[in-house]
Amino acid sequence: APAEAIITPAGARYEQAQLHFYLAVLAHHRGDEESLAEHLGRAMALARRYEHGDPPRCLFFFVEEAAWTLPLMVHALRRGVVPECADCLLGRLSRPAFDAVLPLLRDPDPLVRARAARLLGRLGEGEALRPLAALRRDPDAGVRQAAEEALQRLLALPPEPLRVQTLGGFRLRRGDREVVRWPRRSARDVFLLLLEQAPRPVPKERLMEQLWPGSPPDKAAQSLRRAIADLRRTLEPELPAGLPSRYVVTGDETYALHLPEGSWVDAVAFEDALARALALRPREAEEKRKALEVLEDALALYGGDYIPEAPYEDWALFRREQLRERYLAGLRRLARWQFELGKLEAAIETARRVLAVDPWDEDSVLLLMRAYKAQGHPAAALRVYETFRERLKREINLSPREELTALYNALRRP
């Protein structure tokens, strides 16, 4: 070809590889197998020989022209053309390469099936687990070995992190995919119980007692096994039967939930952030302003009650009350710091947020009265006390504590 006659004597190896690549693309479109094999082989041989320069330029156009490269690499994989180079290129093309290589597991040539299996193991897509597991029954020993090695390689990879929302509503994401369907509510409940203790193991007996109280032991055990199986399929729909879950760890009479690195649980994040904020002991005004921001950020993580989808289940009630009390403790501290910094409107709003959840919180009533007094609104402070006193008397037949009554009496004096 004229172009080749010009660039070959010039030693332009990159351009030579590029030229043969495009000639291979053209041959592929024409269905010219002989020309395709010739030009693809020469392009990949040049790429293999010169790709290790600094920078490694020779593979650039292969990756940039992915739509053209993929069918050529599938051809190379089938024909065994510079296999190490084909594997390298397909590995760089990730998900598109996975989609292109997966059908090769059904190729009539066992060498192609084995090459495809090994490559799928390196691509790291969990969706390859089931077809690779099926390949362990292949009539060819080499294919079976390649499939087993690929399976072990995939199973050794870290599983995708989980992102769990439990406050204000339950949502679960695995990697970038949301889990939207649960085969049974019991699978979701087992997940939440394991999540609460993660990564510590939970005895099977405790799970049965909490989820199926009063049920005969053999029936509860059967229900638990079914729930665990449903949970495994929900978290890892691609996992073949008989392979160990990477999230649900089975022990001697226990189950545990493994949260991979990078996982995030809103309730845990809220508790950790709130604990750090409440540990602050600011003295100066500037320190209090900074502490206020830290506390506000922590409280923003509380999106609502814990698992409102399970309003009456005993296993959820304790955790819900625990988190709510911590949230209220944070709000009380926030109102106090706001008051001390002279942010009176903000302090009033925060105190009312506490009382909306806990109408008997006398500390918030006292702060509300003081804030109105500081604003020059004693009548509003008196109304707060009188409303609280009447409700307290009517509903639980008690009187406000002395400190509240003393402030009320002081405000009534002319």
What is the topological layout?
Elements: H1 2-7, H2 13-30, H3 33-50, H4 60-64, H5 66-79, H6 83-92, H7 94-101, H8 110-123, H9 129-134, H10 141-156, E1 162-165, E2 171-174, E3 177-179, H11 185-197, E4 202-203, H12 204-211, H13 217-235, E5 248-251, E6 254-257, E7 264-265, H14 266-278, H15 285-300, H16 314-340, H17 344-357, H18 362-374, H19 378-396, H20 402-412
Parallel strand pairs: 1-7
Antiparallel strand pairs: 1-2, 2-3, 4-6, 5-6
- If you average the pLDDT, what whole number results? 86
| Rg, alpha carbons | 33 Å
Biggest sheet, spatial arrangement of strands: 3-2-1-7
Overall shape: it is elongated
Please report the number of helical segments.
20
- Estimated helix fraction: 55-70%
**Total of domains:** 3
Largest sheet: 4 strands, mixed
Q: Tell me the CATH superfamily of the largest domain.
A: Leucine-rich Repeat Variant
Low-confidence stretches: 52-58
CATH topology of the largest domain: Leucine-rich Repeat Variant
Total beta strand runs: 7
> What percent of residues are in strands?
5-15%
